[in-house]
Amino acid sequence: MVDFAYADRSLAQWYDLLNPWGPGDDFYLDLVMSADAVLDVGCGTGTLLHRARARGHRGRLCGLDPADGMLARARRRTDVEWLSGDALSLAGGNRPGPVFDLVVMTGHAFQVLVGDEELRGSLAAIRAALAAGGRFAFETRNPLVRPWERWTPDRAVEVTDADGVTVRVAHRVDLPVRGDVVRFSETFSGPDGARPQVSRSSLRFLDARTLGERLAGAGLTVEEQYGDWDRGPLTADAPEIITICRAAPAGTRRALGWGD
Q1: What is the rounded average pLDDT for all residues in the chain?
Q2: What are 118-150's pLDDT values in tens digits?
Q3: What is the 3-class SS of 77-102, one letter each residue?
Q4: Residue 258 pLDDT > 50
């Protein structure tokens, strides 16, 4: 299910204010600008592809997202392809034509792939969407630093839009956390707490070893991995697991017994 915070247009309008452009966006923009055909899975409001086109990208840019509220904002720019769906839909009628040189999942979108079958199918679909030698880049939060322990109501944030309207957003994690899936709520309210709207989410936190195994099983070879947006090493206390992998040759996958 799509999170209410992304599907509802009145809440989706706050996404860019709550998640302003940062070092991670610069990291992905460099990758996008060096690729001719790019697919952004979980593109959200389309900020990355908007910026790439504004910077002069002349190739194919395609954004895919299952949330109507987010896509409504992405579609304000019409010189980019926008598709409604998730990664699994790439394997069906929503497959966006020719394969891509680069597929990205930004904003920790990879972590919404909670179930084993969903993860397996999504990785297979992404692999199939890549051209020979194409790359898949994404990031997940490092579970070893337990970032969800800081998602508490006392750390709520407030943002104000251009019309002077303010919203307060607070998180509360469902405790205890067991396994690698963290479930939590996100509450949107005015400064006086009136008329709160609650969105519920689930994110999966895979460690680097398990992540590598899942990627290999889908025919994706890890080429680069970093622990932060400055391309620092992936260590136990690094905040991120930033991964760039490449599509393994089809013959390699068959030799290992993987499907096409």
Answers
A1: 92
A2: 999 999 999 999 999 999 999 999 999 999 999
A3: CCCCEEEECCHHHHHCCCCCCCCEEE
A4: no
pTM: 0.92
Pairs from 19-28 (Cβ < 8 Å, separation ≥ 24):
19/107, 21/47, 21/51, 22/229, 23/229, 23/230, 24/106, 24/107, 24/139, 24/229, 25/51, 25/106, 26/229, 27/229, 27/242, 28/104, 28/106, 28/137
Hey, what's the torsion of the CAs at 38, 115, 11, 81, to 10 degrees? Answer: 20
Q: How many CB atoms lie within 10 A of CB 260?
A: 9
Q: Give the span between the Cα atoms of 174 and 133, in whole angstroms.
A: 41
- From the list 212, 205, 181, 158, the residue with the least C-alpha distance to 14 is 158
Percent of the chain with pLDDT over 70: 92
- Which of 4-13, 104-113, 133-142, 229-238 is predicted with the least confidence, judged by mean pLDDT? 4-13
DSSP code per residue over 202-249: EEE---HHHHHHHHHHTTEEEEEEESSTT-----TT-SEEEEEEEEPP
Which residue pairs, CB below 8 angstroms and at least 24 apart, start in 79-86? 79/53, 80/46, 80/49, 80/50, 80/53, 82/43, 82/46, 86/41, 86/42, 86/122
Query: CB of 220 within 8 A of CB of 136?
Result: yes
Six token digits for residue 117: 């079958």
Cα separation, 169 vs 49, in Å, equals 26
Q: Judging by beta carbons within 10 Å of its beta carbon (0-12, 13-18, 19+), is residue 117 exposed, middle or buried? A: exposed
Give just the sign of the alpha carbon dihedral 192, 169, 71, 73. positive
